[in-house]
Amino acid sequence: MDGVMLHGAEPPPLTDSYKLHRRFDRMARLTGDGGMARLMDSFVIVFGLGGVGSFTAESLVRSGIGRLRIVDFDDVCVTNTNRQLHAMRGHIGKPKATLMADRLRQINPKAVVEPVKQFYQADCADELLADDPDFGAPDFVVDAIDQFTAKCHLIATCRARGIPLVSSMGAAGRWDPTAIQIADLNKTQGCKMALNVRKILREKHDFPRGKRPWGVPAVYSDEPCQPPEPLAYEAGTGFRCVCPQGQNGLLTCDRRARIDGSASFVTGAFGLACASVVVRGLVRGASQKETTDG
Q: Is 288 exposed, middle or buried (0-12, 13-18, 19+ CB in 10 A)?
């Protein structure tokens, strides 16, 4: 992945030299030393660093994940300010992945954070899901991608390879963070995005029909999506793209049927819910292994 990866300078932590740092004292009081060691020795990939993914990535690092690859092709736009952690004064037009990596290293300098400025597509799946030379295969993947083709390919690829994945469904157009739920992707209700994702997965990726679980946890809301309100400064002309990178041919404003509103207290809650699936899965997996080994 030469030319697209920006590697952290610090070496990864090793399980056999585990030592708790006080910055994780409160987390460790939930997980215990065994769970904390597992988190510090885990490799997680986050795809998409928007209103959901930026909160997921930060929560994972604050939870003690030792190795994080964060993937997003986009640059910060002024319209990201209301919901994305890296969207601050002086950051407009800069790569989201690089900015987020800098932020995460400030939270935990011991973490190895690898930013990748790239758009997930079928032809780069192997590259972006590649093993880490020190940590091995990814322990978990977070799908916070908006674009349906990329999203469904990632879900299908991870399922086929046996990589645990949590997928975020539609967070825009919602007001109520208490309406957020976590369920198997084939069991969600009231989420149009999940419905469309299921249709694509069945038609394009041979996912089974019927209601049996797919083994893919999804974070979703059953709150109806509110259509966008017209704004005075649009003067009746509709949404006008102000993205600093312009129309990039990948995920562009001009290709979107409409631009829904969003609230940080909903998109952020989606991201935190995704992080919870990852952390609980890793810690509980470690506990089960210890019980079996014992």
A: exposed
